[in-house]
Design a protein that fits this description.
The chain is of the alpha/beta class. Helices cover 41% and strands 15% of the residues.
């Protein structure tokens, strides 16, 4: 998986891509750890390097105070930037107890249908009930601003663009319409009319 580049280069890549960034506060005054899933180079960074990076560069900055995680799932594809289920479990188990105890909320931005189904089915088995209970799905950025101060967190443009796409094509939220680019105004392959009215 990561034989092409050294451990130091892998750590430098994580730093350069800003996959993990501590910046801003939520409306409860807690620090925010922002994670951009699309930026994660899953095919280049090993699980061991990732754990070391988190232990040395991220967790110490969190301190011993409550914090929130803002995970941006927009643009994550299993073949490119998803580390795998076993890797997620291994990373979760390596998180120190004081860090998990201080974690107050995980805001999961733009969860797709697959992510929701996966977490609903296996989330309770992979993660503790405490962590699973802190998970908050956020389908639109407008809903995020109810919990996080708008100007406190940097949100990449592609996230806002996807949010705008969802406004025009709401069936994407439910996996009923492809998220491939197309021309707005063209007929949707999925009917948006409810079948409940037809008798």
């Amino acid at each position: 998986m990561s034989g092409a580049i050294s451990e130091v280069e892998q750590e430098e890549l994580l730093e350069k891509l800003e996959v993990f960034k501590i910046k801003g506060r939520d409306k409860h005054g807690r620090k925010i750890l922002r994670i951009i899933g699309k930026f994660f180079p899953a095919r280049l960074v090993s699980v061991d390097v990732l754990k070391k990076y988190l232990e040395e560069r991220i967790f110490p900055k969190m301190g011993r105070k409550p914090f929130s995680v803002l995970y941006v799932h927009t643009g994550v594809h299993r073949s490119e930037n998803f580390p795998g289920i076993a890797a997620l479990r291994s990373i979760y188990e390596a998180i120190p107890v004081n860090v998990t105890e201080n974690l107050q909320a995980v805001y999961f931005i733009h969860p797709g249908l697959q992510a929701r189904l996966f977490l609903a089915t296996f989330g309770r088995f992979l993660f503790s009930a405490g962590l699973y209970g802190k998970l908050r799905y956020v389908s639109r950025l407008d809903y995020l601003w109810e919990h996080v101060k708008r100007n406190e967190v940097d949100i990449p443009d592609f996230v806002s663009d996807h949010d705008e796409d969802l406004e025009y094509r709401p069936m994407m939220d439910y996996g009923l319409e492809s998220d491939h680019a197309r021309v707005y105004g063209a007929p949707s392959p999925v009917s948006t009319y409810s079948m409940r009215c037809i008798s």
